[in-house]
Amino acid sequence: MHEETNRTKTEHRLLTLSCGNLETLFIVASTSRDYANDPDAFVFVNMNTALLDDESRFRDPAGRWAVGRLGYRGETVSSLQLDLGTFLAIIYGDIDFPYFDELVDAAFNLNTRLMRRGSTMYSRFHNEKLADLLLAPRPSPGTDKVPR
Description:
Layout: E1 11-19, E2 22-30, E3 43-49, E4 65-72, E5 75-83, H1 84-91, H2 100-116, H3 128-135
Antiparallel strand pairs: 1-2, 2-3, 3-5, 4-5
């Protein structure tokens, strides 16, 4: 599992969503300039959750995702990591991901606990319009029906 959270010579952040002082969703990519032809190029999606009892039970035998622990200042979390292609395949229903509900519930628990701690120095960077877009109901894939 890729555990580096800071920018390095070989990778950088594309996106980070934080709750309080803790990143809860982040996307890390290699610094490659030719993703199509670079065999070492990567994009990983990482979702942090409340600490889970046994992360090993979430591992995929095919290696498409991993769940492990990450330590932050004052907080240890469980973290799901998968490459961008796998993430998209799960979202579009092309890959069965049997842990989806459990991990989303654990992420919800982490986020709500962090929000209850109150404002942080990062609050001034909150973007209401982006939050509204991210949280807006979306049609289910292949339909035009918006879940309520």
